[in-house]
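Person: At home tonight, work slowly through the protein below, taking as long as you need, and write a paragraph about the fold.
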Amino acid sequence: MQVLVINCGSSSLKFQLIDSDSENVLAKGLCERIGIDGSSITYKTDEKVTREIDMPTHNEAIKAVIDMLTDDEVGVVSDMSQIKAVGHRVVHGGEFFSKPILLDEDALDKIEKCNDLAPLHNPANIIGIRACMEIMPGIPNVGVFDTAFHQTMEEASFLYAIPRKFYDKYKIRRYGFHGTSHSFVSKRIAEIIGKPYDELKTIVCHLGNGASICAVENGKSVDTSMGLTPLSGVVMGTRSGDIDPGILEVIANFEDVDVKEVTRILNKESGVYGLSKNSSDFRDINKAINEGDEKAIQTMDVYVRAIVRFIGAYVAVMNGVDAIVFTAGVGENNPNIRKMVCDYLSYLGITIDDQANKICGEEVKLSTDSSKVDVYVVPTNEELAICQETVKLVEN
């Protein structure tokens, strides 16, 4: 089955066309500057093509994708009837969705009710879904939610110790994100190790510009570092991660700004970028460390310590761990961070093969045979995971 996977942002649209049988990506690309002058589509098969196309709305972006996929020169399908389903990444499903769902008006209404929980993402997701429904009538659309995997958490994990009325009235609680990635990687590690998924205790470290840690016990998410929003948890590229909530009022008073501005600072000017006064890119941080930059060294120490805190907490929550997995951009490509994290975890009996740890961007076992906990790198593939979930739902 050929599945079109769509990931809509407010002014962008990423896409992949995947053959679910072979799991090959037939084509992929990005529509940029939707609703802004100078909009364009970048389309990749064996070669890369960029075309400037006027895209005042997401409808035009979806049409541009279809035109490229069916183009006489660079297209990979003769007509859209070859595409049997569209899978959409949806960031927030609230408590409505604990699994992927076929999208209809009722589902879209529920997604819209979660807009306040993800104001930058959900409205754009809805626009993309509606555009596909209009441009590709009759083709099933499936929603795969970042928050769904974490709906297995118990109240002890997701409730905040604030007046219960805020949960009862507004559903303010821990939701967690990167669920599609955590699900994909935790299932893959069970296949690699050769143990039943529902008998493993796994900690997945999704370390990218956005980062989250997830405890997966017996095939279920039991705890995760991100909360009501993707701002909480470990230190990230430009996001602060967990801080004392009182800091918001202190900064607001000192800087004479409102809470909205402080939140923007915590999202856009904090984390690795804010601490280092240099960059949110660890390639730049590593270079600065090699040059003896003290702020870069401190930033790396803070970043690693935050990761280790959550791993240690989740070992306690699950009363043990069988496997620790690194994934996403930083997790897959930064041996230094992996080594520093694992050195902290030597108390668990973890030992690392330094030669294996030099490998980047590939599926690899980092731990030695004598290590008491398996440690791996498993590249995430959220698009493939969305494709797999879409096929499963459509075929059933």
Q: What stands out?
A: The radius of gyration is 21 Å. The longest helix spans residues 294-318.
